[in-house]
Input
Amino acid sequence: MVNEIFVLAKIKFDLRDPDEAYFAKHEIESILDTEVEPIKTIPSIFRNEPFSELDDEVIHLITRLLYLGEVQGYLAKLNSCNLIKIAKRATFFREIYVIIETNEKDSSSLLNSLGIEEMPINNSIISPYIQMFLKDIGIKKLITFRIIPVQTLFEYAPEVKKLPATVFKPKNNNSWLEYFMEKEKGIEIGLNEMLSHLQTGHYRSPHFGLGKTHIGDFIDWAYTDLRKPFLHYLHKYKGKGDPRISRALINLLKVDEGATILDPFAGSGAFIADAPTMGINAIGVEILKIGQLISEVKCELDYDIKRLRDEVVEIFNLPKADDKNYPTSSQEIANLAEKIKKYTNDTKLYENIYPHIPAIVLLKNKIEQIEDKKIKNFLLVLLSQKIVEYSEKKRHFDFLTSFKTYVEDRYLTLYATYRLAEKLNVDISEGSVQIIRADSTNMSFLEDSSIDGILTSPPYFDALDYIGNNKVSIIVLGFDDDLKYGSTKDFYNPNFRNDNGSLSFMKTSYEDMQLPQSGTELIKMLKESKRSIKASIVENYLKMMKLSFRECYRVLKKDRLYLMVVSKYHTWIINGEEQRIDTSPIIADLGKSEGFKLLKIIPHGLSKADKGKIHVEDILVFKK
Output
């Protein structure tokens, strides 16, 4: 017989924003399907049972590396739970402890009830991410399960690249293939050290300062500004979502494995990139070709890793730009230079990138010859990222060398991810992802009531231009259709989209569309302050969003959720003075006008890498 199950979720100590600690509450409540109690000081819980009965080792583990904020964790009481689901879903937690008091003698039946199908490897290790601790209390047993969320482990995986076995150039290698094989051995050593340390290294003292050689010094004590799991942060893109927030939002949708979710404004794919690692299928809708390409690569984790290494080796074997055998056509270089000059209006973008065009042509031609489409697109996205870096700022460092360094880093990250997935016995490509180049105002390719959940972060009125910083890479990659949009504001103009866009646009007349009162009042305010152009942009934006809401309502299943991350407010010049306008309620009214119920609004600090004019966001939770 099992009494109450206690679940203590310990927040990660390296959160980047205090708001994440509170957002973690919403996530863990969605995973456990119950309300939780915030624990401000975790050591205080050891005054009460069952925590007061725990062994010193377990207490040491629980109190180690606590978050130094107002809330350190969350506590829940359950009648049942699934340890594997908790491990595979949780995002914001370093560890989750499940504590059970039972008088059952047969541990196997208890484990089965918790989702564990096989008996522990030894007395305490159930899997690389779940440990079990037993304590006899009279005729009863106190069982503690320590869960290290899979997401946390994948965040740690890239840290093994900082260890000496991977950082230093291998000796006595006669080819680039041998070089990478030695690096892979270093990754293997680092991953084994990482898993061993997490299971048994909790009494190890830290090494501060320079000369770190142990994985514990990187994942325990070296606070990092940004952890980069999977293929997140592969490419700079305006307004892309934070990986932790994005994964947590999927949990807030409360969908099961095998479900299908939708992002109608996919951008670079950040919001749905983790879906396949959670066994969830995803569809992304994106109007820009550059966004579609980045999304496809970011969401794709099913690569032939050996073949990818072979292609990386081929790139490393390319000659330098000053080599007499440099295999590029002077005419091809001149043509690309002229095209960049034309479409960037001879700006700094052109001036910055001009010296590097020969190397860019060489790399693009080499990559285009790759037969494997997934690998080709992966390397094209890496090339695009380097083009963005070199066009935004004047750089004198050799482009080809910089590209090779970036390719090596991302390849080793992907290799470490694959090897860790094998060790955890986790399928990171269990779900499928499809990125469709289309307009979210007309998703006729989706059937009615076919989607289990929707999450997105749409354009924020006029806050960001998603094209500007990618313009040179758009030109190089040949995505000329993207250049038809002079700026993101052109997305909202119905005449522009009908005349210039190659996508099917919902032809409902904007003139006849009725907006909610909050939207019409904002437009009126802008017009009265003699900001007619801004008023027109806002009006077109709101009508475009209303049409998108209509389509999302159509494709979403009944009683399912739509999560939308929007700017809490916008700042505009009204009557000569800067005014802050609460725009979140205006977007909420649009959703309600198309039939959605607004369940709640979750305030949150910015979850984007690029702020633009936005500093605070709201998460609108709609229900059909």
